TrEMBL record:
Membrane keyword on record: no
Biological process per Gene Ontology, one example term: thiamine biosynthetic process
Pfam families: NMT1 (PF09084)
Highest classification ranks of the organism: Bacteria, Pseudomonadati, Pseudomonadota, Alphaproteobacteria, Hyphomicrobiales
Keywords, sorted A to Z: Signal
Protein name: NitT/TauT family transport system substrate-binding protein
Region forming the signal peptide: 1-25
Domain called SsuA/THI5-like: residue spans: 42-242
Record InterPro entries: NMT1/THI5, SsuA/THI5
Originating species: Microvirga flocculans
Coiled-coil residues: none
Length: 337
C-alpha cells in the first residue's frame, strides 16, 4: 500500500490524521483560540478537545481565551493577538468582507444557530405565525439589526411590534402576550425555573434562518502561510465536538466551570441535551460530511436572504467570507455513537 493510501485509511479508521499520531514526538505548537462569550456548554467541543488531549494529539497546545461583555476577541484575532476566533452567525463574516477585514471562516461547528423566540403557552401564540399577533416582541439591538430584519422580509413582522430587551426575563414572564428572544440551550430552562412553566420554543433555524453558527475564523495570512496548522485545529476541534456530544464529557464540563464559576451542572446538562435534540451541531450536511461542514449552496441561500432583508448589497462577494478547504472530509464520523 502506498504511503498516501495508508495515511488516508488510517485517518478514516482512527479519526486522526497521520501527522497527529506522530505529533507527540514533536514540540507542541502554541495556539490561542478566543471565544465570543464566557465559558458555557455551547463551547463544549473545544473544551473537550482540550480536556481529553485531542489538541495535544494533533500537536497543539491550545489556550482558550473566553469572551465576555468587556472582551473583543474578534478584534484581537483580526490584529494577530489571537490565532483563531469562535464566530457567531455568517452575518459577521459577510460584514468582514464588506469592510475589507482579512478574516475567513474555516469551519462551522453549529449547523443551526441556537437563536429562538419564546412565547407563553395557551395565549394564542402557539405557532411561529401566531407571533405576528404580539405587540411586545422583546429583542436586543443586535437582534433587531439582524434576524428581525429577516423576519420582516420573510414573514411580514413590523418594527412597531418590537420592545427593548434587557436580557432579563422578568418583563416576559409578567406579560403573557409577550415574545422574547433567547437561546434554545439556556433561556427555556431559566424561564421554567423562575416562572414554573415551559415556554413555547421557536428555533429560527427551523423556520428558514439558515446561517451557520459557532464558526472557526482566522486571518487569511494564517490560512495561506500555515494551512497545516489550520487543518489540525479544525480537525481536533471537530473530534472534540463528537466526543462532547457522544462520549464522556465530564472533564470538559469541569474546565467550563473553571473558566465560568457561575456555570451549573444543571445548565450544562440542559444545553447538551438541547444541542442534540435540535440538531444544533450534528444535523443536515454534518451527518454525512462531518461536524463543521459547510456548503456553497447553503452559504448562497443565507446570503440571498440577507440581501432580501436589506443587510447587504447583492454585488458583495460573500464567497470571500469562507473556504471549504478544511471541512467536509468526514473527520470524526466514526466516533458518533
Amino acid at each position: 500500500m502506498k504511503l498516501n493510501a495508508w495515511v488516508a485509511a488510517g485517518a478514516l479508521a482512527a479519526g486522526f490524521s497521520w501527522f497527529a499520531g506522530n505529533a507527540m514526538a514533536q514540540p507542541l505548537t502554541e495556539v490561542t483560540f478566543g471565544t465570543n462569550w464566557i465559558a458555557q456548554g455551547e463551547h463544549g467541543g473545544y473544551y473537550q478537545a482540550l480536556a481529553d488531549g485531542t489538541y495535544e494529539k494533533y500537536g497543539l497546545k491550545v489556550t482558550i481565551v473566553p469572551g465576555g461583555p468587556r472582551a473583543n476577541n474578534r478584534m484581537l484575532m483580526s490584529v494577530g493577538k489571537l490565532d483563531f476566533y469562535m464566530g457567531g452567525s455568517m452575518i459577521q463574516a459577510f460584514s468582514a468582507v464588506e469592510k475589507d477585514i482579512p478574516t475567513i471562516v474555516v469551519a462551522a461547528h453549529f449547523q443551526k444557530e441556537p437563536q429562538v423566540l419564546l412565547s407563553h403557552p395557551g395565549q394564542g401564540l402557539d405557532t411561529f405565525a401566531d407571533l405576528k399577533k404580539s405587540n411586545d416582541i422583546l429583542l436586543s439591538k443586535d437582534g433587531v439589526a439582524t434576524f428581525f430584519q429577516w423576519m420582516k422580509a420573510e414573514f411580514g413582522f413590523r418594527d412597531e411590534q418590537v420592545k427593548p430587551f434587557g436580557f432579563n426575563p422578568a418583563p416576559f414572564i409578567a406579560n403573557k402576550a409577550a415574545v422574547q428572544q433567547g437561546y434554545v440551550t439556556s433561556e427555556p430552562l431559566t424561564i421554567e425555573k423562575a416562572a414554573g412553566f415551559k415556554p413555547n420554543v421557536f428555533l429560527l433555524a427551523d423556520h428558514g434562518f439558515s446561517t451557520y453558527s459557532t464558526t472557526v475564523e482566522t486571518r487569511r495570512e494564517v490560512m495561506e502561510k500555515n494551512p497545516d496548522l489550520v487543518q489540525r485545529f479544525v480537525d481536533a476541534s471537530t473530534i472534540g465536538w463528537y466526543n462532547y456530544l457522544y462520549g464522556d464529557n465530564t472533564k470538559a464540563k469541569e474546565l467550563i466551570k473553571r473558566d465560568n464559576p457561575e456555570m451549573t451542572d444543571e445548565l450544562l446538562n440542559f444545553s447538551h441535551a438541547k444541542m442534540k435534540e435540535y440538531g444544533i451541531v450534528d444535523s443536515g450536511d454534518a451527518q454525512t460530511l462531518g461536524i463543521g461542514a459547510m456548503t456553497d449552496a447553503r452559504m448562497k441561500d443565507f446570503f440571498d436572504k440577507m440581501v432580501k432583508a436589506g443587510l447587504f448589497k447583492p454585488d458583495l462577494d460573500y464567497t470571500k467570507a469562507y473556504t471549504l478547504r478544511f471541512v467536509n472530509k468526514g473527520v470524526g464520523l466514526n466516533l458518533k455513537k
